[in-house]
Amino acid sequence: MPFDADLVILGGGCAGLSLGVHLADASATRHHTLILEGRTEYTNDRTWCFWRDEPHRFSHLVSREWPTVRVQSAQRRVDVDCAATPYQMLPAGAFYTEAEHCIAASQSVTLETGARVTELPARISGGWRIETSSGQVTSRQVIDTRPPRCPAVGDAILWQSFVGQEIECVAPVFDPTTVELMDFVGVRDGTVAFCYVLPLSRTRALFEYTVFGERPLSAADLWPAQQAALLRATRQQSWVVLRQESGTLPMGLTGNPPTPPGQDYVRVGVMSGAARPSTGYTFQRIQRWAPSAAASLRRNHFDVAHRPDAVVRRLMDQLFLRVLRDQPELAPELFLRMFGEADSARMIRFLGDRGSVLDCAAVIATLPIAPFLGQLCKSMPGMTPTLTGAK
Predict the structure, then answer these.
(1) Within this chain, do residues 175 and 193 fall inside the same structural domain, yes or no?
(2) Cα(287)–Cα(14) distance, integer angstroms
(3) What SS3 state is found at 297?
(4) Do 169 and 208 fall within a single domain?
(5) In a domain, 368, yes or no
(6) Tell me: the pLDDT tens digits for 157-186?
(7) Which of 67, 93, 164, 366 is placed for a possible disulfide with 83 were both Cys, Cβ 3.0 to 4.6 Å?
(8) CB within 8 Å of 163: residues ≥ 6 apart
């Protein structure tokens, strides 16, 4: 039977559009890809940040970069020189515009906005039937970038929930040379909170309030604390809100993801392995995945799922996240030690998924042994840790 598309990508967010752009960039092909996005239009709804470690398809859209990042608590402060691999900001609005223009010029990829999926895709002979608010679509294969379900307790070891505002103050209050990566402001009810500040000028910044906790939190949950922290950070100066953003990211997915309904149906994206468990960073990981997935599709292979992290890295991330979950009061000291005692280049490679075994070992060496050994023993009943001389 004839199909409307050879491949349908459900969701035109970062993962869906990145893959679509790489398919559109390729030479003309007889295969047709259709991206279905529920939004009727794109807005500058988020900000992606990362350390510059390697070029990617959207490198030219980076709008700001900083040579220094800061981690601090009430007790001390660590400034990290990252001039060799500066911390960069890429606005979602620029990414969306670039992707829309690239796909619009393609003869093999189509983006349809305002097409909300209304039912579970149904298996038909040789492919899939997808009911949308714009009508029915059929396809041979499906890549689903949407979350399998709403974020819920138990789906991840921890959740990173945040809400932020880009503001313009009436007086200079920000240092435009330094990103405040983590300014810890408190531990409460099993969560740890910190402020994240991207200074765009002395008077303008993106100010986010972030919480690590077992429960995903909504913007409404975080607004009162964010506003109080912003008032303190601006020294009660007046400001104008230019835009706002919020989100929830998994840190260490637990259990097995829902089984795809067929070999020609794959789940990808933030809730399916795109996010680095211990940090929540996703953009660079998606930019490494997208060209590889596009190349596989061009070879008529459907090997497009995110590759699982190496076993050692996955176990390290899980252990670290469980310590944060069970002893959130340790978070400021753990992050201050890692950023303050590890070589900055090694630390940045580690956070950016590019770390070698030696990089990982150097970062681990900065951490206290006792809480991690204790956490290991909790998962192995009958073991009793010997902490004599533990760091």
Answers:
(1) yes
(2) 9
(3) helix
(4) yes
(5) yes
(6) 999 999 999 999 999 999 999 999 999 999
(7) 67
(8) 208, 209, 219, 222, 223, 226, 244, 245, 246
